[in-house]
What does this fold into?
Amino acid sequence: MSLNQSIIMTFFLWYLKEAPLVIYKIFQHKITSTFHYFSIDILAKTLFAPWKKDVVPFQRGGIEAMLRIVLANLMTRVFGFILRTIIIFTGSFYLFFIALIGTICVILWYFAPIIWLMALISLFI
It folds into this structure.
């Protein structure tokens, strides 16, 4: 095997195997960091918890005071549920978008030589 053949084989090995793995690892890291940034797993586990752990402690009093406390605690849980749901959907949409862009990048990586060749041919036609 001559030096030119070795260089060509090394290029094809890099282009078809090593570079797509690097692209995959980059997007895998981006997906993992986004998952941690949005804390989707933690938000899903605490979906019905009060927002910022804001709870009104129960006190002795009449039924009206007790209902006010229950309503306040229920409102913090509803508020927490709404905000956590919005953040989970936003994070999930962003994760889907990153995965889609990563898939497109890998596909374009494989088809880039064909696209360049077609562009060059169209210049001369």
Q: What stands out?
A: The chain has one domain: 14-124. Residues 63-124 form the longest helix (62 residues). The helical segments are 3-38, 40-45, 63-124. The chain has a mean pLDDT of 88.
